[in-house]
Structures are given as C-alpha cells and as structure tokens.
Amino acid sequence: MPDTTSSELPDAARDGRLSYAIFQLARAHRGHAAAMLRALNLHPGQELLLMQLFDRDGQTQAELLERAGLDHSTVSKSLRRMQEAGLLTREPAPHDRRVMVVHLTDAGRALREPIAGMWRTLEQISVRDLTPDQIEMFTACAQTIEKSVRDHGRQSAGG
Asked: Could you tell me the pTM of the whole model?
C-alpha cells in the first residue's frame, strides 16, 4: 500500500502543528489497528466494547457507552453486529425491561487473548523507536491533551 501521507505541513495548518500531527498519528494508528482487527473479523470499536466486557461481563448498554467513550449509535450498531456474529447476547434487565444487559458468549470470551495480543503488537510497533522515558512523556502529554479537548467539549456543550 503506498504511503499517502506527507511530512510536509500544509500552510493552513501552520498555526496548528500539534493538532495536525495528532490527526496524522491517529489516522495512521487507526488504519493499522483496523487492519489488525479485520484479521480477527472485528470492526474498529468492537474491541473496545469487548475489552470492557472482558473486565466486567453483564454491563448495560449505557454503561458500555460511558466506559468505552463511544457514541450511542456506534455502540448500538456494534452490539447488534456482534450479537449477529455470536459474540454476545443482549437481554432486558430484570429490574427494567427497557434496559439491555450485555453478556459475552463463549465465542466472545475466546477473543480475549487475540485482542490482548493485537494491542501488544500494536504497542510494540508504535513504540519501536522510542525510549522508555519518551513513552512515558508521550503518554502523559497525550492524556493531558485528551483531557483538555474533552473538558473544552463539555464546556462548549454546557454553555
């Protein structure tokens, strides 16, 4: 596959160098992760839901939505596809029939190690040319940036 990215910064992004770098990084990382997920017969985002269920099976759709950080339509569509693929079941909660509780099937549970392995491999690829100190610094900076963007989004939505 040809490399369609360029290290040359577009003039319009000159005052947003960091944001442009984040966009390019996210695009490359997401594309590689998507290819790895296809090998597991998963769509991007489905692994995030599965990982939440590996940690605590029997969550409600609302809990999964909150924990995975995905939007409602993405979660609903993903859960429907995953149920059709036999990876999970959804059933009404005993306390409220409108609330759907999600449980892994044996096939869903069997993806735990392949998904963990995929994330290990993606991590090894990602940090290949970084020192342990650079990894720690990048991780801290990325979390700070993510929080800033998330907090700004909340402030904009609320006011």
From this structure: 0.82
> What's 32's DSSP letter?
H
Within a 10 A sphere around the Cβ of 40, how many other Cβ atoms? Answer: 15
- What is the rounded CA–CA span in Å between residue 13 and residue 20? 7
For 96-155, the pLDDT digits (tens) are: 888 999 999 999 999 999 999 999 999 999 999 999 999 999 999 999 999 999 899 888
Say if residues 37 and 43 touch (Cβ distance below 8 Å). yes
* Percent helix, percent strand, percent coil in the chain, to nearest 5: 65, 10, 25
Closest by CA to 120, choosing from 47, 25, 45, is 47
- Indicate the angle between helix axes 72-84 and 46-55, nearest 10 degrees: 80
